[in-house]
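ping. complex inputs:
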Amino acid sequence: MMWDQWLVTGFGAVLIVLIVWFFWFKSLKGTRAEVKEQVQKAFIVVKGGYTPDTIVVQHGKPLRLYFRRDEVASCSERVVFPDFNVSATLPTGVTTPLDIFPDKPGEYEFACQMGMLRGRLIVE
Amino acid sequence: MLDVPNPNANFHSANNAAQMRIGIKGMNCASCVSQIETVLEQTEGVVEASVNFAAHEADIKYEPSRIDMDGVKRAIETAGYQAVDASPLTDAGIEKAEEEQEAEYRDLMRKFKLAAIVSVPNVLLMYPDLIPGLVEIMPHGSTVQRGVWALQGVVTLPVLVWSGSQFFSGMWAALKHRSANMHTLISIGVVSAFVYSIVATAFPGLFPADTPAEPFWDVTTVVIALVVFGLAMESKAKGKTSEAIKKLIGLQPKTARVVREGVQKKIPVEEVVVDDIILVRPGEKIPVDGVVQKGATAVDESMITGEPIPVEKVEGDEVIGGTMNKTGAFHFTATKVGKDTALANIIRMVQDAQGSKAPIQRIVDKVSGYFVPTVMIFAVLAFVVWYDFGPEPRVIYATVAMVTTLIIACPCALGLATPTSLTVGIGKGAENGILIKSGDALQTAERIDAIVLDKTGTITQGKPALTNITVMPGIEEDDVLRLAASLELHSEHPLGEALINGAGQRGIELTEPESVQATSGQGVEGKVGSKQVLIGNLKFMKAKGVEAEGLKDIAEIYTPQGKTPLLIAVDGEPAGVVAVADTVKEDSAKAIKRLQALGIEVIMLTGDNAVTASAIAEEVGVDRVLAEVMPDEKAAEVQKLQQAGKVVAMVGDGINDAPALAAADIGLAIGSGTDVAIEAADVTLIKGSLMGVVTAIEISRATMRNVRQNLLGAFGYNALGVPVAMGLLYPFFGILLSPIIAGGAMAFSSVTVVSNANRLRLFKPKGGAA
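pong. complex structure:
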C-alpha cells in the first residue's frame, strides 16, 4: 500500500475509535431534583436531547418534572416514561409539568416517542 | 323554560366554590406570583388563588354567584398583568401542536422549493453531454467549465445553509448530548459532498489526470431537496395519525346554558359547577355530564359510544357531555364537570395510551441507541476500503460510498414504525367506543386465546325483565299483568320493576294500589281497584290459602329455564304466572360466535346456580360454563386457566369483577354511562355490547400486524440499504448506488412507514357488518 493509503487507513481507525468513545462511553452526571414542600421538582430543557438527561430523585416522594421544548422538530413532541405509563405532549416554548410517583428505587429510562432522545431517572 | 325551580340556586354561595384556570402573561419574576395571588385573594368572590409561575397560569377557587371569569380577568389586569384563556383542561398542547405542525410543514416546503430549484441546473450542468451544444460552450476540463462549477458552488451554498439548516441544528443539539440522529447522518453526508466539490473545483490537480475530478453539487442539493421533502410529507402524514384524538377534543362544547337563581345564562363551560341546572335545546351539544331533571329527548351518543342509534333519555337518566341532543329540550343537573367528565377522561386515557410504548418497541429502543454511530463507522469503513482497494478514481469512489452510506440509513423509519401504528390503532378504538389503556394492552389483546365472560351485566342486561305470562283459563294476560304491575307500582324490588316495565311495553295503564303489604322473601299483597291481588311464591300462596296446585305446575316449567316464576292470585283465586329473567343482550350470541370464529375459547363465569347459567349458556352458544363461583373466587378461576397455558381475557363490570380483571392477562370492563375510567381494566368498552370485545381484538390484531409490517420494512430497508450503499454489490455486479438515489430511498422509507400506519385508519370492525 502507498503512504496515502496507510494515512487514510490510520485516520479511519482513529475516527472509528473516536466515534465509539464519543457516543458510547459517556459518563452521565446526574442532576438532583430539588425538594420543595414535599414535592421533588426538576426542570428539563428539550432540545436535541434532554438537559439535564439524568435526574436523581428519592423514592416515595412525588416528583414533578417541568419540560420545556425549545425546538420545533416533531421528533421530540412527546416525552414518555414507559415504566410509569406516563407521557406528555410538549408544545414548543411552553413549560409542561409532568407528575410521577417514584415508589421503587431503580433506574428508569425516559425518551421521546421514537426513542431518539433519551434520559434517565435514577430513583434512590 | 325559565320557571324551572332550581333547588340548588342557594347553594352556590361560600360552600360551593367553583374552580377555574386562567393564563397570565407578563410574569417576569417569581415575585409576581405572590403579588397576583394577593390581588386575587382580595378580590370579592375569590376564595383562593394559586399562581403557577412555570405554567404561567393561575388556579382560582371562586364563588360563581359573586364573580365570573371576566371579573377575575379584570382583577388580574388591574394588577398590571394580562389575563388570557388558559389552555383547555384536557390537553394544553394539542391545538398548538397542530399549528406547529402546520408551520413546520410550510417551513420545510419553502426549504424544499429552494433546494429543488437549484437542483435543476445543478443536475443538468453535471451532464453537459446530454444537452446539445453545451459541451462546445464548456468543454471538459476547460476554464469555462471550472468557472461554471464555481458558480454552482455559490448557488449551492444557500441551499446547504438554509434548506439544510435543520440538519445542522439537529446534529449540534444532539452532539451536545453526545448522541447522534438522522440529522447527524444527513449533515455529515451533504457536508462531505459539498467539501469534496470545493476541492474538486478549486484543486483539480490533486486528482489523477486520466480520471479528472467532478464536483457533487448536484448530490448536495438533490439530497437536501429529497430529504426535506420527505420530512414535510412525514410531518403531514403524522398529523393524520392523531385525527381520532383531535375529533374527541373537538367534541368539547364551549358554552353552557345554566339556570342559576331562576335566571338563564350562557357561560363558558369551564365555569359550570357540580349541581348546576343546565338547559339543553334540540340540536345543541350537552356541555357536561349529568342527570336529566326535567324533560325527555333522544341523544346521539355515537361520538362517545360508537352506538349509531340515538338513545332515549327521560328523567333520571344519565347524559354524557359532548353528545348531541336531538329531539327535545330538557334540564339536567351537572354531576361531573371540567376534567372529571367522561369525555375529558376518555381524551386523557387515549392520549396516555397513544403515548405509551408497546413491548415490541423494546427491540427498536435497544437498536436505536447504537444505530447511528454504527452507520457512521460503516461509512468510515466504506471510505477506507474503497480508498485502499478500490479502482481509480479511488477518492471519488470512496467519497460516493461514504456519502451514500450516511444518507441511505434511516433511523427515523425505525423510530416511527411502532408509535405511529399505535397512535392510529388506539385512536381507531376510541372511535368505536373502545378505550385501550396502553400499548402493552393492545399487544396482549392480540394473543388472547381464552376469554372469560361474566354472565350478569356482560352477556345479559344485568336486570330482570318480564319474559312470559301464562294465565288460567278464562283470564286475559293483560288483565293479570295490569293488576300485578299496579300492585308493584311503588316497589323497589327489581322483580317489581320488571313487571312495571313489561306492562309499559304492552301499553298497559297502571292504577294506584292500596294497602300494599309485603312479606319479605315471599310475596306482596294489596288492593288494585276493587280486586285483592297476591303476588309471590308457592309458599306465599299456600299461606294465604290459595289453591295453587295449577300455578305450581306452570311455575315448574319456568324454573328449569333459569327464570323466576311469580305466582299471581286475584280475589283468592289462582290467576296466572309471570316469569321474569335476566335477558341476554341482543348481540351477545353474535359476539360470542365471532369470538369463537377468531379461534378463542369462550367461557362463561357466574355466581348464579347451574340451572340459570346453563340456560343462558345454551342461548348464546357457550359450551364451557363455570357456575356458582363466588365473587372472590373469580380471580382464582382466571388464574387456573392461565396455569393451563392460556392467554386469558376477562370481561366484566369493573366493580365486582375488579380482582378477576386485574388477574387476567387483559381485563376488559363493560362501562356504564359516564363511568369510563375503570382502574382495574386494560380496556374499557363504553358501549355495553359484547361486540366491543370482538372489535377490540380485531383492532389489536390489525394494529400489531401493521406494526410488524412497519418494523420488518424499516429493519429490512436498513439491513439491505446500508451494505448496498457501502458497495457490497460492486465486486459482483459493478453496482454502486448514487447518493441521490440513497436520498430518495431514505425519504421514501420513512414516509412509507407513516403511510402504512395511516392505512389503519381505514379499519372497519368486521363484526358490525356480519
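The radius of gyration of chain A is 19 Å.
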